[in-house]
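Why does residue order matter? Because the sequence determines the fold. Keep that principle in mind as you read this record.
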Amino acid sequence: MAQTRVVTDNARIMRDFLKLSKWEETNSPPLLVAIVPAEQLRTLPFGFWQHCHLHNITCGFRDTQTHVKAVFFDMDRTVVREESIVTLAQLADKKDEIARLTDQGMAGILSYQEVYARRLKMLSMVREEQVAALHHDLHFNTGIRAALLELKKFNMKVFLISSGFYPVVKEVSKMLEFDDCEGSRVKFVDGYLTAEDGHGIIDGEGKRAWVESKCRELGIGLHEVAVVGDGANDAAMMQAAAVAVGFSPRAVLLQYVNALNLCGDHRFLIPLLTDT
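Structure:
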């Protein structure tokens, strides 16, 4: 799917990608995976990622010494096409309001704690069975099943970590056979979602903490981890990981990534994370 090259200097990296950015729109979207020495990876300028984002170039870098043993995926707009809570909001006639709040949170304009509390209050009359059935209304992004199957062949563990409601995350995890999952815990009173925002919210730091706990459980280091996400609440776990993949990411994430998946196909992960 992607061209895989081993490169040893930034001048060559920039030359190759500048060439790719001039492809005509009628051609297939350009893809490139490069395995580079760590010292070169650290010195790529931020403007490089802005350039790739602007020109829709799917690209990724992995340190020659990095061998990934676990991959952590965000769920909403990464594994599934939708923001699950926005889909749920349709049931409460709050889709537009919640979509705006969600966009502000994912762009880093509002804190996730504030966004979560306000959204939960709007959804306080949603029934428990509606939350339990929500996964039926979600659609998987291209290539996710194939990518997960291939990564497992290389003995990688795959995890789903989301700020979304745990009952939804759990069902999606089961459908795709992730090794484990976590999401924000919610409460129901008399069968209805409550507006209580307890200690079960998974925000950006909560995602990072869960990644770290799973690494301790597996006996691996963060230098053996890849994460895939799209929004501001993925930034903390991206900063901790050896490989950070932005999946059609918000601009706020460009400073943390070393891979951009702008083609929307998760099979891009196969040449990026494996030694095929």
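The longest strand covers residues 157-165.
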